[in-house]
Amino acid sequence: MSEKIRVAVLGADGRMGTAVCEAVAGAADLELVARMGPGDDPGVLTPADADVAVDFTTPAATEANVHALLDAGLDVVVGTSGWTADAVERVRAHVEARPLAQGVLIAPNFALSAVLTMRFARQAAAYFESAEIIELHHPDKADAPSGTATATAQAMGAARAAAGLDAMPDATTTALDGARGADVAGVPVHSVRLRGLVAHQEVLLGNPGEQLTIRTDSFDRASFMPGVLLAVRRIGSRPGLTVGLEALLDL
């Protein structure tokens, strides 16, 4: 039997971190070697301790964690939201400058249904006059819009631009602040925070006389675990920066 992949989890005390720890501990080919919480320094880890670190911490901490883990010599899988384009590019430059063939995956969502929703929305965006996104999460989520909604809107905006579509029709002349949502790459994104929800997203696309709705619902954090474990198993063979779980799927 081949050696197990040794995994350290950052944010292990959080809801997602706890679920990741349980999933890793239950996988026959993985070994949970470290549970790190707030105040723990990820820079103390070495390749002698772990092969891969999984970060589910906070938007304020995640970029510094990734840089520390790269300097420590580990591969990194990141599920924390709130990444900016500049932060992603700083990580890209760092991992490309490392002498080791390390890999970093930053994924806005690990649920397979969410990854497919993003893919389908990007494909459909070029064929519809109007498009909007509604993302719905629990009220303890720190960022809005969600990383998934932001990435979806950016991909849809790029597809619309490549197709040469005009700006979406909208005759609104007066509105309360935020009523039309956040503008992400020309796509309105609306954030709902409601007790009882976990993670949900609805993409609405419209043409005269027709509407397409693409929706993903995660009712339990268990829905993210197959994607997380897939990333842990494959990141060691993908040096450099990978953004999005889609790159690891046969789509």
**Helical content class:** 25-40%
Question: What summary fits the major beta sheet?
Answer: 6 strands, parallel
How many domains would you count in the coordinates? 2
Care to count the β-strands? 11
Class inferred from helices and paired strands: alpha/beta
CATH fold node name of the largest domain: Rossmann fold
Description:
The radius of gyration is 19 Å and the shape is elongated. 39% of the residues are buried. α2 (62-72) packs parallel to α3 and α4 packs parallel to α5. The chain has two domains: 5-106 and 222-248, NAD(P)-binding Rossmann-like Domain (Rossmann fold, 3-Layer(aba) Sandwich); 112-219, 2-Layer Sandwich (Dihydrodipicolinate Reductase, domain 2), CATH 3.30.360. β4, α3 and β5 (103-106) form a beta-alpha-beta unit. It has helices at 15-25, 62-72, 85-97, 112-125, 147-162, 225-234, and strands spanning 5-10, 30-36, 52-55, 75-78, 103-106, 130-137, 182-184, 187-193, 199-207, 210-218, 240-243. The longest helix is centred in the middle third of the chain and has 16 residues, at 147-162. The chain is an alpha/beta fold and 251 residues long. It has a six-stranded parallel beta sheet with strand order 2-1-3-4-5-11, with helices on both faces. It catalyses: (S)-2,3,4,5-tetrahydrodipicolinate + NADP(+) + H2O = (2S,4S)-4-hydroxy-2,3,4,5-tetrahydrodipicolinate + NADPH + H(+); (S)-2,3,4,5-tetrahydrodipicolinate + NAD(+) + H2O = (2S,4S)-4-hydroxy-2,3,4,5-tetrahydrodipicolinate + NADH + H(+).
